[in-house]
């Protein structure tokens, strides 16, 4: 059996693929890698289908040992990658021999690194996906030291010698949004969203919690209650505090606070890499 | 009805009533457009996402606006019967609030036919409508930090069953052994929007 052993998961390491969209009506979040282009790239580098399951490592720190010969690649923000103590680089296909140890350092910017292994991680799928959903508890548990990850069968040819420039996560993000569905619940929503917001440390895969100058409800909506309604990834929900939450992949599927605007899907990978302290502005025309 | 923008790939339809929302959901479900990626009912709204963006949403809008919502198609909702032991921690409180006896609470709760209006809160948690008036009661002032899995509860116009242990503020009237959600099952959720539900009292 082809396997790799987790020696240390680092701050948090989760199995992720492209998630399980299409089940929101059953109360099941989409989940999946927050930076999907990064996971897709890692899979391409090792010769996997783009949707194979890999590891999403928060702030690096992951250490693992191969049981078998395999091809691996690490993507996301630039991060030191070492094989048996030797720096080998990220964003490149790497060969790992049996008993060799792979170590991820800490990325200087950004949050989530992605590790793909040839054959993909063959955890059992739930609702068509191997992703760990931190909100609902669906999918494999978070990785722990000593876990043995079974790999699938190699299916493709690794990219080989290609090396790609890692994307550089920004300390300030401008996120295109479309106002609505509940922008009429707020006073001057476009201007309020265009101010500078700061990502707080309360953020996780469910959502980015932002601090800044609270949005104000329109006078006629001050004490209004919203019947629960559906939520999609990228929705910017405003609880009574006036401080918005940008929902990410593990978001609840319905909610009772108004959504003032929805972030453009193209902005989601960068939001998934936004560290606490990152500045965010929302642009309502694009 | 009012169509509201929900990002580039989705629209939120505000409905005048739960019945209207259910009718629109039935129309869209029955047509089964392949490009619709999510169809998420809410208490008074329906969220529709399309992988075809604007074009797909325009097609949905045309479909709904030309439909006879007074006579929606029947979409195969299931009939589910849940066996319940009415021994909930708040049963006396519910009886007292309603000004009736505990036996009457059980009679009212088992006598009604419910419909899964929408889901949320946790995978497999259905908000069931059809609750008799005397049982429409406020949430607990202080939510419990842990409600056992299988708890049958009421809050406002809804009744429901907690699929797994979680915090919760609904009033507990009983519990069921039924498995509400199993992510490895062919049909993971016992209750889906449109299903009808009855509760049966176990001695």
Automatic annotation (TrEMBL), chain A:
Q: Which Pfam family is one of this chain's hits? A: CT_A_B
The record's GO molecular-function terms, alphabetically, read: ATP binding; hydrolase activity
Matching entries from SMART domains are given as:
AHS2
Question: Which InterPro entries is this protein grouped with?
Answer: CT_A_B, Cyclophilin-like_dom_sf, PxpC
Carboxyltransferase domain sequence ranges: 25-286
Q: Does the keyword ATP-binding apply?
A: yes
How is this protein named in the record? Biotin-dependent carboxylase uncharacterized domain-containing protein
Q: Does the keyword ATP-binding apply?
A: yes
Keywords (A to Z) from UniProt: ATP-binding, Hydrolase, Nucleotide-binding
UniProtKB/TrEMBL annotation, chain B:
The family database entries (Gene3D superfamilies) matched by this protein are listed as:
3.30.1360.40, Cyclophilin-like
Q: Which UniProt keywords apply?
A: ATP-binding, Hydrolase, Nucleotide-binding
Q: Which domain of life is it from?
A: Bacteria
GO function term, MF aspect, one: hydrolase activity
Q: Does the keyword Chloroplast apply?
A: no
- Give the Carboxyltransferase domain ranges: 1-191
Entries under Pfam families matching the protein: CT_C_D (PF02682)
Q: Where are the transmembrane segments?
A: none
Task: Decide whether keyword RNA-binding is in the record.
Answer: no
| PANTHER family with a match to the protein in the record | 5-OXOPROLINASE SUBUNIT B
Q: What is this protein called?
A: Sensor histidine kinase inhibitor, KipI family
What is the source species? Answer: Amycolatopsis marina
């Amino acid at each position: 059996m082809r396997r790799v052993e987790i020696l240390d998961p680092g701050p948090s390491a989760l199995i992720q693929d492209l998630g399980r969209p299409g089940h929101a009506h059953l109360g099941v979040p989409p989940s999946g890698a927050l930076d999907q282009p990064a996971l897709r790239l890692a899979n391409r580098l090792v010769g996997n289908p783009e949707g194979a399951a890999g590891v999403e490592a928060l702030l690096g720190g992951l250490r693992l040992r191969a049981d078998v010969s395999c091809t691996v690649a690490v993507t996301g923000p630039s991060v030191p990658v070492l094989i048996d103590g030797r720096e080998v680089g990220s964003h490149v296909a790497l060969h790992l021999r049996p008993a060799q140890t792979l170590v991820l350092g800490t990325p200087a910017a950004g949050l989530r690194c992605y590790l793909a292994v040839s054959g993909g991680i063959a955890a059992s799928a739930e609702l068509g996906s191997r992703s760990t959903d931190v909100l609902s508890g669906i999918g494999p548990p978070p990785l722990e030291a000593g876990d043995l990850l079974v790999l699938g069968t190699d299916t493709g040819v690794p990219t080989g010698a290609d090396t790609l420039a890692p994307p550089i996560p920004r300390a300030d993000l401008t996120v295109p949004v479309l106002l609505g569905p509940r922008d009429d619940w707020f006073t001057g929503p476009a201007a309020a969203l265009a101010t500078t917001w700061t990502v707080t440390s309360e953020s996780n895969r469910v959502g980015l919690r932002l601090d800044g100058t609270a949005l104000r409800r329109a006078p006629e909506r001050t004490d209004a209650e919203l019947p629960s309604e559906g939520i999609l990834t990228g929705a910017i929900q405003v609880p009574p505090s006036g401080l918005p939450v940008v929902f990410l992949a593990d978001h609840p599927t319905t909610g009772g606070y108004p959504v003032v605007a929805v972030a453009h899907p193209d902005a989601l990978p960068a939001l998934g890499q936004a560290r606490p302290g990152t500045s965010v502005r929302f642009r309502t025309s694009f | 009805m009012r169509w509201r923008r929900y990002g580039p790939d989705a629209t939120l339809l505000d409905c005048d009533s739960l019945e209207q929302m259910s009718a629109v959901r039935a129309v869209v479900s029955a047509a089964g457009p392949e490009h619709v990626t999510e169809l998420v009912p809410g208490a008074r709204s329906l969220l529709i996402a399309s992988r075809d963006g604007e074009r797909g949403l325009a097609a949905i809008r045309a479909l709904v606006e030309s439909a006879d919502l007074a006579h929606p198609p029947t979409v195969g909702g299931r009939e589910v019967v849940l066996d319940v032991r009415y021994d909930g921690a708040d049963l006396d409180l519910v009886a007292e609030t309603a000004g009736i006896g505990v036996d009457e609470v059980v009679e009212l709760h088992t006598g009604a036919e419910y419909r899964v209006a929408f889901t949320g809160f946790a995978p497999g948690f259905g908000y069931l409508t059809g609750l008799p008036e005397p049982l429409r009661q406020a949430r607990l002032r202080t939510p419990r930090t842990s409600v056992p899995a299988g708890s049958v509860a009421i809050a406002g116009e809804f009744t429901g069953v907690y699929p797994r242990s979680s915090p919760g503020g609904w009033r507990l009237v009983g519990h069921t052994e039924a498995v509400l959600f199993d992510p490895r099952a062919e049909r993971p959720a016992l209750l889906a929007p449109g299903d009808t539900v009855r509760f049966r009292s176990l001695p």
